[in-house]
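User: quick one, fold this
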Amino acid sequence: MIDFTKITKENFGKHFDHTCLGKWRSEEEIRAAARVARKYNVACFGTSTSYWTPVVLEELEGTDITAGIGVDFPFGASAPAVKAMDVEYGIKRGATCVDYVINLGAFKSKQYDVIHEEARVVRKACGSIMCKAILEVCYMDDEEVRTACEIVASEGIEWAKSSSGQYAGPTINQVRIMCDAVKGSNTRVKVAGVKAPKPINAAAYMLAGADLIGTQDADMIIESLDELRAIGMIPEYKAD
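Assistant:
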């Protein structure tokens, strides 16, 4: 869990993946969003496909911010082999982080072997780069949320991610279930689909146990840190 007593506007960015996911976005918009990611020193800047990855790499040059891509948005309906090929192509274009969507239809049909298989092949295709599995928990009941997290954690996926951000985000209870399900593993919890008021909801998800927030408004949330403290949402900063 994030220790908010050590969080400042300067280091808060590493708890965010800043994104520009709209597939209609122009090169100018992608570059502008990447520059925001650079300014706030986020963990990752993500686009919906690898088409813009070379442009993103130009904007992020000299930073430790990863260049993320989405794979199989929004419902993960492709076969595992197709997902792996998409990952491999993205890496060739320079991607250094992958957020793939599990096959939601297969999962809802209890075809858990498919979810295991795609996690294995995607994790293998990612090699040394970070891999995050998007669950789209707004379409799941509580037991399904737990099961999905347990599957991706068992296959060594580094992050269980609540949502693609294209639909509804998770409830606080779903985030707590996710965190409990991956406890004791090397998998952590990322939340996307943060709705307004975004600073308050992002902080609530983090207080519930999420370590990472995916959003197109990382800058606005980071800039709201003082206001979150002023209303008692998070504790005051304490210097070492």
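User: anything notable?
Assistant: The domain at 4-230 is CATH 3.20.20.70 (TIM Barrel).
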